[in-house]
Amino acid sequence: MLCLALATPAVTAQGDTFGAVRSAIRNGSSRAISQYFGGTVELGFDGDKQSYSATQAEFVLKDFFAKNSPATFELVHQGASNEGIQYAIGKYAGKSGSYRVFIKMKPTQGSQQIDTIDFTHE
Questions:
Q1: Are 85 and 58 in contact (CB under 8 A)?
Q2: 111-122: buried (b, 16+ CB within 10 Å) or exposed (e) per residue?
Q3: Range of the domain at 36
Q4: Cβ–Cβ < 8 Å for 102, 92
Q5: What's the whole-model pTM score?
Q6: Helices (H) and strands (E) in the chain, counts
Q7: Contact residues for 110 (Cβ-Cβ < 8 A; gap 6+)
Q8: How many CB atoms within 10 Å of residue 38?
Q9: Residue 2 predicted with pLDDT over 50
């Protein structure tokens, strides 16, 4: 019973972090998402992946949202590896069509930080 009580905050924290990221993407706010970036972030758009500093990644996402303003964004699946790497898969509907979005977070200095965001046109 004690194990469950201790595990609950981690699950809640995971949900809270992904909830905040979901809201930021839904609102097209690269600034809000950037609060969860690690030192470097891998961004992918239709298979073209590059690593960026947190500041560069914010501007790349800002440009993406400007060209593909969000209509809706929903998370459809969340999970975590045994190593504590959390991930979520979502559906993004924007001006230029629908995307499958993969988000990977890694534990860094006691918090979860975004390591990867990958948008794949459907």
A1: no
A2: ebbbbbbbbeee
A3: 2-121
A4: no
A5: 0.84
A6: 3, 6
A7: none
A8: 19
A9: no
- The closest alpha carbon to 19, from 4, 33, 7, 9, belongs to 33
Residue 64: count of CB within 10 angstroms of its CB = 21
Q: Which helix (H) or strand (E) holds 93?
A: strand 86-94
How far, in whole angstroms, is CA 15 from its chain's centroid?
12
Rounded CA-CA distance 44/17 in Å is: 21
Residue the block writes with tokens 């960026």: 52
CB 103 within 8 A of CB 116: yes
Q: What is the CATH number of the domain that holds 48?
A: 3.10.450.50
Q: Name residue 117's beta-bridge partners.
A: 43, 103
How many domains, the chain?
Answer: 1
Q: What is the pLDDT of residues 28-48, one digit of tens each?
A: 999 999 999 989 999 999 989
Residue 5's pLDDT is what?
40
